[in-house]
Amino acid sequence: MMNSEFAIDVDKGFSDKEKYLSSKYFYDDEGSLLFQQIMELPEYYLTRAEFNIFETRSLDILDKIGANKLDIIELGAGDGLKTIEFLRQLTGSNCKVTYYPIDISQEAINQLTKKVKTNLPALDIKPLIGDYFKELHEIPSSDAKKVVLFLGANIGNYRQPVAINLLKLINENLSKGDMLLIGIDIKKSPNLIASAYNDKQGITKAFNLNLLTRINRELGGNINIDNFEFYSHYNPQTGDIESYLVSLKKQEIYLKECDKTYQFAKNELIFTELSKKYDEQEIEDLATNADFKCIAQFHDENDYFADCLFEKQ
Asked: Fewer CB near the terminus (10 Å): N or C of the chain?
């Protein structure tokens, strides 16, 4: 009998005709550390582009938010590099902020809390560990305007219907006039995008293969990691970049937690992640379909990335 959500989801993914693993399981402690390395890669423009937005446009964002007392709630806070810059500028303009970072990784929250206390010792930080929506319910009501941060192009990891439903769930936890600041990677040179997801150093490969290492550790798997390789592909027409693990040989994998053996054909794919890129109209449509209004889009100096302010109607 499978006792964990992880085991149930891996069983479903490995049993499907087109095998898959949920990208939400990337971010165990090791995965979070690897993703921090990815963000520092020269090919990975996303973090630098979004940081540039907060360096140059934070006060413009605050002006559009239109309040000086805020509950800033960050979903999937990670290491907080960009957010600390945003919070620094908000507090420097005499905005009263309570910061609620939410992440499933204890290690990520520990590192973030330490960074915030070092860089912004006067900031009121109330970290939460767990699932976004479970923890959203734990945030007390106040007279501050709520602004949810969903940064780093995370929305691109979801197919369109799921992305809309996710934003609707966020919407349901907000009051009229509250806002969502969402990071969105925008369509640009296909080569630039493709290289960001297949770095020469192999960190993205290690990040994906860590999923298999986690399965071995937590589910009692016997996976030989060397029997898999990493592959990614970008379609500039749809804006979808898809990542896969590829079985290099015909093999059987046994998972003790599931008490089940799974068959893999040579060259069979395991889908691991979608990273969709949007154009301006698609961003507007995303907001509308989730019962928000897109009131502003803030771009970096190279026009690679956008942080978009959605308001609950």
From this structure: N
What are the tens digits of pLDDT across the range 197-254?
Answer: 999 999 999 999 999 999 999 999 999 999 999 999 999 999 999 999 999 999 999 9
CB-neighbour burial class of residue 153 (10 A; exposed 0-12, middle 13-18, buried 19+): buried
What is the average pLDDT score of the chain?
A: 94
Angle of helix 280-289 relative to helix 160-172, nearest 10 degrees, comes to 50
Length in residues, the chain: 313
Domains of the chain (ranges plus CATH)?
Answer: 5-40+191-276 (no CATH), 45-188+278-312 (3.40.50.150)
- Give 1's pLDDT tier (boundaries 50, 70, 90): low
Cα–Cα dist 255/6, whole Å: 12
pLDDT at 193: 97
DSSP string spanning the chain?
A: ---SHHHHHHHHHHHSSS-B--GGGG-SHHHHHHHHHHHTSTT-HHHHHHHHHHHHHHHHHHHHHT-SEEEEEEES-TT-HHHHHHHHHHHHTT-EEEEEEEES-HHHHHHHHHHHHHH-TTSEE--EES-HHHHHTTSPP-SSEEEEEE-TTGGGGS-HHHHHHHHHHHHHTS-TT-EEEEEEEB---HHHHHHHTS-TT-HHHHHHHHHHHHHHHHH-B---GGGEEEEEEEETTTTEEEEEEEE-S-EEEEETTTTEEEEE-TT-EEEEEEEE-B-HHHHHHHHHHTTEEEEEEEE-TTS-EEEEEEEE-
